Structures are given as structure tokens and as C-alpha cells.
Amino acid sequence: MADGIEIDFLPVGDGEHSGDAIAVRWREDGQYKIMIYDGGTKAYGAALVEHVKTHYNSNYVDYVVNSHPDNDHAGGLLHVLENLTVGELWMHRPWAYSDEIRHYFHDGRITDDSLAERLKQKMSAAHALEDAAEKREIPINEPFAGRQIGIFTVLSPTRDQYVHDLVPQFEKSPKLKKDESVVASVLDMIKEAAGYIADRWDIEYLPDTVSTSAENESSAILFATIGKGGYLLTGDAGVQALRTSADYAASVGIDLPQRVTFVQIPHHGGRHNVSTEALNLLVGEPLQNATAPPTRTAYVSAAAKAPRHPKKVVTNAFVRRGFRVGQTKGRAISHFTQGTPKREGWGPITYLPFFEEVEK
Ligand SMILES: [Zn+2]
Fold it and tell me: How far apart are alpha carbons 36 and 62 in whole angstroms?
């Protein structure tokens, strides 16, 4: 039986670029288990190692999970593998599927090897993890729906979706991604320059038409229950992955909207990753009563100087659903249950309000 969980969001990014570095510890049959879920960019691995040594008093991590191969999530994990003893590494290996997916490509010159090589180059931080784990004989498992990482169940992606839908998209846009994200953020800035609009509790504008990269949609979404608590980690998932999670959970009898008491707001609170419909399926519908005190917690990793993370319109969506919202913005924040060890120098955090005005 498991009890006592600590979920620690470490700050990533002193500039404008956000990332995730999350450490989790729980007790299982009287023994502590430790999981690292993403490691931020390269520089943040050292902070994670320090955190595990100082606050968990350990040199051993049971599970290292890379939600998806983007640098702001995979980068710091190499330092963790190199400086702590690791039981299992959980990451996707997109380059391992080139023979299964090569028929999607019309270029007759593509060989299995060249496809795999290109993916390895494009996702160099994730590939370096695989190398480091193999060198140390750390077992590598792939986080597909239904697999179990300690007390956490993987809800998304399904293996089929990953191999046949997402991986071909990684390869089809080898150079597009960065430009797309620049275009998206410029578009966001233009939209925001247009100013703010009033927001109301009973009206939500989060359309279902938003989309994010295939890499983000490949984020391993994890869920665990301890007693009455339900803990959901989402990486940079978008609406597609959130829907898959809700469907998968329902198929195995987990009523997510009823069970989730803690959620990671996906993709640093970006507006392209959540919709009203997806949130309703995942964590339930907005509350009727705007004055009801929050009963659940949502955390978001956003860089100290990120001007657009988290979006107010996204924060409001979680507040409407009964969450108090905490953000990193340059410091570590910890969600913990009763009975977990006290920490010197850690105090209460200030939660975000319901914003009366949101980005247009
Ligand atoms: Zn990210």
C-alpha cells in the first residue's frame, strides 16, 4: 500500500524559456520510492540531483521518466543518469520504429537507417539518454498507455497512436518545428498587443481548434492514486493526448474528473494545449459557484521571466474547475500529503487569483 506523496516542481529557466523538472517521492509498503519526471534543459540536471540528495536523502532514483524528447524536458536527465544510481529509464524510442513506418514516406531513397538516424539527430538530448542508460545497463521501458511505473499508470499515448500517427509527424517536419513555435509566439504577441478582454466565471473561451506539435502530443501522461488523492502529470500534452488519457482512464474504470486532486497544467500554461471539452473530460466541468473554496491543486512550471506563461485564460480554466493554481516562476514548489517530512526553509505559496481580464 502507498501513502505520503511529495511532488516537487523545480524552477527551470531564468530567462523566458520554460521547461519541466519534477521530482516525486512516495512511500510504498514502508519504503520510499523516487521518480524524476523530466529534467529541464541541460543546466537543471544538477539541481535535480541536489534536490534528491538534500530533500530525499538518497543517491538512488527508482524511475527516471522523460515525457517527450524536447530539450526543455530531456536535457537535464543526462546529468541525473550520470550522477545518481537509476533503477529504470522510461522514454520513447521513436527511432526504433523506422521499419514499421517507412511505408508512409514517398521518398524511395529513405532507408530504415536514414530515418532512424535523422530522428536521433533531431532528438539528440533524448538519444543521449538512451546511450547513457545502455552504457550503465539501466533497463529502458517505453511509456505507452497501460504500462505501470511504480504507482503511476501511463494513460497516453497508446503504442499504436505513437508509432503510426505521432512518429511519422516527427519525421515529416524535421526543420519546421522551431520556426513554427517562433511564428506561434509572434502571433501570440500580436494578439496580446491587441490587449486584454474581460473574463467571467460562467463564460470560457478555450476553443477546440487549438493544436500543438506531435512531439508535445507524444508526452507520457501519468496518473496515480493514493487514498483519496489522484495525481496527474501531463508534460507538454495537447488536447489530443488529454482526450486519449480520458478515454483510456474511462476504459479501465478510472473516473478522472472525480479522482484528480492534483494536476500538472500542461505545456507551461500555454493556450494551444487545452480546450474546454478536453478539460471537462480530464478534470471535470467548471463549478457553478464562483465562491466555493478550491478543493484541488494545479501546478505549472513557467520560467521566471516568461511573459506569456502561464496564460491567464488557462489559469482561469483551472480555477473555474475548483483548483488552486501554483506556479514556479523561479522557485521550487512542493505539493505534499500529511505525514511527509517537514522541510526547513519552505513556506506557504501564493496561489494565482481568478483573473478578471485575460489575453484576447
Ligand atoms: Zn516544454
Answer: 8
| CA of 109 relative to ligand 1 center, distance in Å | 33
pTM (two decimals): 0.93
User: Which range marks the domain in which residue 263 is found?
Assistant: 2-342+351-359
Which of the residue ranges 181-190, 230-239, 297-306 has the most confident prediction, judged by mean pLDDT? 230-239
- Cα 238 to ligand 1 centre (Å): 11
Euclidean distance between CA atoms 330 and 303, whole angstroms: 6
Over the Cα atoms of the chain, what is R_g?
20
86 grid coordinates: 537509476
- Residues 97, 103, 107, 112, Cα dihedral to 10°: 30
Confidence check: pLDDT of 2 > 80: yes
Please name every residue paired with 159 in a beta bridge, in sequence order, or none if there are none: none
> What pLDDT digit, counting tens, does each position of 56-109 carry?
999 999 999 999 999 889 999 999 999 999 999 999 999 999 888 877 776 656
CA gap 216, 188 in Å, rounded: 18
- The count of structural domains within the chain is 1
SS3 category, 351: coil
Instruction: Read off the pLDDT of residues 203-231 as tens digits, 9 standing for 90 and up.
Output: 998 988 999 999 999 999 999 999 999 99
Q: Which three cell numbers stand for residue 128?
A: 543521449
DSSP state string for 247-300? HHHHHTT--HHHH-SEEEPGGGG-TTS--HHHHHHHH-PPPS-TTSPP-EEEEE
Ligand 1: centre distance to CA 236 (Å) = 5
List all residues 6 or more positions away from 131 whose beta carbon is below 8 Å from its beta carbon: none
The DSSP string of 318-342 is HHHTTEEEEE-TTS-EEEE-TTSPP
Answer yes or no: is pLDDT of 199 > 60: yes
Task: Tell me how far the alpha carbon of residue 271 lies from the centroid of ligand 1, in angstroms.
Answer: 13
CATH of the domain at 145: 3.60.15.10
User: Hey, which residues does 35 pair with through a beta bridge?
Assistant: 24, 63
